[in-house]
Amino acid sequence: MGSERQPINYQFGVFEFSANTGELRKNGIIVRLAPQPALVLKMLLAQNGGIVCREDLQLEVWKGDTIVDFELGLNRCVARIRSVLSDDADTPRYVETIPRLGYRFIAPVKIVPVPQRQGIQVAAAPDPAPAAAFEAILAPETTPEVVPQESNRLAPPQVDAPLEGPSRSPGRKWRSILFYGLPAAVLILVGLFWSRHFVRNRTVQLRSDYSVGPLFSEPGQTGSPSFSPDGSKVVFSWSGSRQDNFDLYIRSIGTQDTTRLTKAPETDYSPAWSPDGKSIAFCRAGPRDGSSIWVISLSDGAERKLIDVPWTPVVGSRFLTWSPDNRRLVFAGSMSEDKASGLLEMEVATGATRYLTKAQAGSVEMHPAYAPDGHAIAFVRDIARGISRILVLPMNPEGGAAGPPVPLSWPGFESSNVARPTWTPDSSYLLFASNRNSEQYLWIAKAEQGAAPQLLSTLGPGLMDAAISSTGDLAMVRERLDIDIFKLDMDRLRRGDSTATVPVVNSNRLETYPNVSPDGLKLAFESNRSGFTEIWTSNVDGTNLTQITSMGHPITGSPSWSPDNRTIAFDSRAGGVPRIYLVPAGGGKVEALTSSNEMSVTPAWSADGAWIYFTSDRTGRPEVWRIPSSGGTPQQVSTTGGFSPSTSAGKMILYSANRSWVTTLKSLNVETREEKVLATDAIRRSYYPAADGVYYIAAGAGGHFLLKFIPSAGGAAVTLYEFPRRTAEGMGMSRDGRSLFFGEAEQLNTDLQLVRDFWRN
């Protein structure tokens, strides 16, 4: 048989489907299926009861088609499958629709190996097109393996093992037999010794009976759980009963016992329990700007500062991870404002620090997680708005990187956001959060190139972070976030009226990135009230809500009005690559303005309507570009790094120096090419060039948000207003300067939840 793959059939009810030929039989009689429905059915059967996401279906079956073609094609394929199976969409026996996510095959399926002579002899072969399509899927994996130093840990053969003690094989790497891989039971390798050295092509066996219970449900915000080494306790950051300050707390698993660990007036966040169980490292916000890394002893509560770092606190993000030998801390960030973001390694005993990685200019590295066995660090590289990647950095046992970081290229996640990876206890799989299917879910995947992440849909949406204990328990952070659009009446504010803020657009979902039409009558903004994030409009008082786009992708947004109020430019990842699109202001046909394979996001019209400025990384880092609004060849505008341009009525444009959340704000005269630094405390995408000067939202001390103003006549920035709650990035202003619109967290609560025995060793 050599290296050929053994054919298999799927049996369910009176049906049998050949994975090799795409042939469907009912009671032994062939039922004809066209190539596309056959491929969709195969993907459903291969997932073994799991959800097949709409994005994966589009990438595999309708790659290159428009959104409309995909929607029509998918609906027809599913309808055809249900027709031949005599299934019903309302009361399904076979194919169940998962709203806004995809589909799954719910009937019991038996997987049967086909003897070789039957696998190559087809009684009545249908059109060969399905077989050709399947052969493309079955083609061998061509991704080269990565072998750091003497091990093959970062790119082992594609071993997709179950949750119950996965095995790894150092042997030859194979592509999964099917697009999503198959359960271990499928692989019947006759005469092969069944051991960890020969287990191949297995997927995680997801259970349907996970029991999600409360771990800590007090009002306020919690974040960054970290288990004790024995798994009996978890430390986390909480805003307190009065929600006035973040400190560290410890909760014992299985009890209601909660102990407050820190009591400083500053914000404490991102705790990491040491492997020896004796101390906890954490971040503490500085009295003005920046943060510092501390260690607190659990025996006597003594605190020791290790290092100052130029970070603005982001509660809920993970910045720290311990090496398993307890000697080193790895943190994400930078050592000074002029150095690139990256991962740094610090010797806890001496404080000696060195860079492990440095991100490309404009990118941000974050969320490091050391593998329990110490062979690697997983981390996230944020490369564009709504797009990030998980990378794995091989590590030497004595510290230092053993090679360059390896991006984990996972099918279907090319244009998605992924965050906060955490390792399973055997250092084999990664659990991570992603908004790929509109809402934030947890996913799990083998920590290797080309693996097929699986959705943990039974755990529910809204999951932002997770930690797995050494005993297999799972702690999760579930967020309940409601961001509404508010208006700040600038006339009342200038008269000293502290009640100048009123809500304009609200729901129990997200409304962000408001942009005011030039005539001052309309707002365009992002909202996910219909499921996916889409472009919506309303009157400036919040009435006459209208959905303008239906791109069907988690990240569609950044609306910008044309000067004549007739067209809205926006960005979307609906086609895989982030592009700039145009749509009539009242809704209608969507047209792509940019067409390259490089990122194109955050559009802004010029005052005369001739150009659309935007961000692109086609030179290797984010810069500001512009393109004729009628289409044409893009032109580079900025040369020292630029992100999210905002245009004025004159010749000046604003943009941030990079994609950092707290960033440097710059101005550029497009005629003289003179560039100026205006501020270093600006919130990303939250600035506006008005006639009298520049308005921007700044990050203040203690996590507060400030509205600042830089007069066009010159002078230092002055603070106009302190926002009562956390603001979302993005703001808009009316042309007359009388109304400022912004997103504000109307409700932001998070709970800690627990899944016992999530990972069974």
From TrEMBL:
Belongs to the TolB family. Residues 7-107 bind DNA. The chain crosses the membrane at residues 177-195. It comes from Paludibaculum fermentans. GO terms for molecular function: DNA binding. This is PD40 domain-containing protein. Residues 7-107 form the OmpR/PhoB-type domain. SUPFAM superfamilies: C-terminal effector domain of the bipartite response regulators, DPP6 N-terminal domain-like. InterPro entries: 6-blade_b-propeller_TolB-like (IPR011042), OmpR/PhoB-type_DNA-bd (IPR001867), Sig_transdc_resp-reg_C-effctor (IPR016032), WD40 (IPR011659), WH-like_DNA-bd_sf (IPR036388). GO terms for biological process: phosphorelay signal transduction system; regulation of DNA-templated transcription. Residues 145-169 are annotated as: Disordered. It comes from the Bacteria. Keywords: DNA-binding, Membrane, Transmembrane, Transmembrane helix.
